Amino acid sequence: MGERVKATDEALSLINLLREKHGPIMFHQSGGCCDGSSPMCYPVGDLILGDQDVCLGEIGDAQFYMHKNQYEYWKHTQIILDVVEGRGGMFSLEGVEGKRFLTRSRAFSKEELTELNLI
Q: Which end of the chain is more exposed for a tag (fewer CB within 10 A), N or C?
C-alpha cells in the first residue's frame, strides 16, 4: 500500500539525532501562519493532540500528525519529509541544529488511491 508519509535519508538522519538528544519525538503539520506552515518536531507529550488530529504514519519511529481539515486537502498526496539548511520554526526541535524540516509532496497514482480507499 502507498505510504501516506515518508522521509528522505537526510530527514531520517536528523530524526535520529533529535531522538538521541531529546528521546521520543513526534511531528505535527499544521496549516496555520508563520511557523504553522512547516512541519514541527516536538518531544512526545509536549504538544497536546486533539480529536481532530490524524496520524498519517510513522517516520523514523516518530508519528506524523495533521489536523483533519488540512488532511482533506492533502489526502491525495504523499507527504515527504525533507531537510534544508536554515532555521526552522522557533518551537521545533531542529532549529538549533542549523537545519529545518520541509514538507514536500507528490500526488498518489490511481493505483495507490485505490489501495488507500480514496477513490
A: N
- Torsion over CA: 115, 1, 44, 47 (sign): negative
pLDDT < 50 positions in the chain: 35-36
The three-state secondary structure class of 115 is: helix
pTM of the predicted model as reported, rounded to 2 decimal places: 0.90
C-alpha cell belonging to residue 95: 532549529
Which class for 25: exposed (0-12), middle (13-18), buried (19 or more C-beta within 10 A)?
A: buried
Phi then psi for residue 3, to 5 deg, are -80, 135
Give me 42's grid cell: 516536538
For residue 14, CA distances in Å to 7, 8, 20, 60, 77 come to 10, 10, 10, 10, 23
pLDDT of residue 15: 98
